[in-house]
Every structure is written in C-alpha cells, then in structure tokens.
Amino acid sequence: MRRWYGQFFGFIAGWLLLRHPVGGLLGLLVGYAFDHDAFSPSRKPAPKRDAPPRPDAGNADVDWAYRVFDLSESASDAQIDRAYRKLMSQYHPDRVASAAPELQKLAEQKSREINAAYDRIQKLRKK
C-alpha cells in the first residue's frame, strides 16, 4: 500500500511554517516526494531497458532487437521498416549536428543500437 500521510502532513507543516497558501503547496510537493520514497537512500537506479546484446545471449538478443523498435516478433516487414525509418529520422547524428556534444554522442550511440537491432532482425528474417 502506498503512503498518503506525507502529503497531508507536508501540506499542514508548509502552511504553518510559511503562513501562506504557497507554503501549503510546497509542503504538499515535499510530502509527495516523501510518499514516493524520493528521499530514501536505498533507492536503486532503474535497470537499463535497451542494453546491447551479449554474444552468448542466445534468444535474448532477438528479444532485445524487437524491443528497440517496440514491436513484437510477429510484426510484418513493413512495420519493422517503418519503425526503423522513424527512429533513424529521430536519432540520426546529422539531425543533431548543431546540438550539444553530449546529445551528439547520445544520438550516435542510439543510432548504432538501432542499426544493430535492424541488422539482427534482417538476419533472422532471411533464415
């Protein structure tokens, strides 16, 4: 069960400390963060969703390749091509050439990942 009392007590404390309705709003926001464990030191980072495949992964790299495009294995070739073109138009390094270097590096990584997934699917489909 999710906690609720952080929001309630945060609202009351914020209102009383700042003596203004804005204080209540700030307290409500802090209480919301408390209820959702934002201040907890035991909070683990979210697992990486699109990890590149390992060579000994077996069937996991097939699942990874389809997950990159957010498609199922029963998707048609046209759907895969459409998803590939859409993602490449979004993450192509030439598209972000004038952006910050960090964004350029991220776009290069993502486009490499998209190309690897597309190549893997094409190899599987030709068998």
Automatic annotation (TrEMBL):
Record protein name field: DnaJ domain-containing protein
Disordered: region residues: 41-60
Native species: Thermomonas brevis
Transmembrane residue ranges: 12-34
Keywords: Chaperone, Membrane, Transmembrane, Transmembrane helix
Pfam families associated with the record: DnaJ
Residue ranges of every copy of the J domain listed in the record: 64-127
Top-level taxonomic group: Bacteria
Transmembrane is among the record's keywords: yes
Gene3D superfamilies: DnaJ domain
InterPro entries given in the database record: DjlA_DnaK_co-chaperone, DnaJ_domain, J_dom_sf
